[in-house]
Amino acid sequence: xMNGQNKFASNKDSKVRIKVxxxxxxxxxxxxxxxxxxxxxxEDGIAYVKEGTWDEAQQIITAAASCPTTAIIIExxxxxxxxxxxx
Length: 87
Ligand code: SF4
Description:
This protein has one domain (16-83): Alpha-Beta Plaits (2-Layer Sandwich). The relative contact order is 0.26. Helix content is 17%, strand content 22%. By secondary structure, it is α+β, with helices and mostly antiparallel strands. The protein has two helices and five strands, in the order βαββαββ. It is globular, with a radius of gyration of 11 Å. Iron/sulfur cluster (SF4) binds at residues 20, 25-31, 47, 67, 69, 71-72. Iron/sulfur cluster (SF4) binds next to helix 1. This is Ferredoxin.
């Protein structure tokens, strides 16, 4: 499993944690287009979370919102889910 796949990944410089649900990822890559410093696709075409400095949190949320299958879950550092929004 790559970083962030089916398990939350964090980054010392980011206010969010990110998880990609592998089973939902259909390799559309819109997450990579919106947040290229945060997401990439592995050799099977499944998104994972990159090492190094991520994009701004708002950009990461935009990337998650662009995913056609809602495969990306974003939470804050307290474990509260930010995206998809929970009411
Ligand atoms: S946008 Fe969603 S389906 Fe497309 S690569 Fe990213 S996580 Fe996978």
